[in-house]
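User: Quick sanity check before I run a bigger batch. Here is a single chain. Can you write out its predicted 3D structure?
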Amino acid sequence: MILPIADYLELLEDLEDLATIAERRNETTIPLEDVLTELNLLQAIRLSLNKLLKNNWHNY
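Assistant: Done. Predicted structure follows.
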C-alpha cells in the first residue's frame, strides 16, 4: 500500500495518541469542574500580573 506522506504522518500521530492513552489508562481523572476552577484561577493570576507589570512599568 502506498500512502501520501501527509496521510502517513497523520497515522503516526494517531498511533502516538493511542500510545499515550494506553500509558495513562490507570491514572486518576480530574473532574471537569476542578479543571475549570483552576483555569479560572490561573486566568485571574495572569490578568493581575499583567496589570501589575503594566502599572509598575510606568514607574521606571
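The longest helix spans residues 32-57.

User: Great, the batch can go ahead then.
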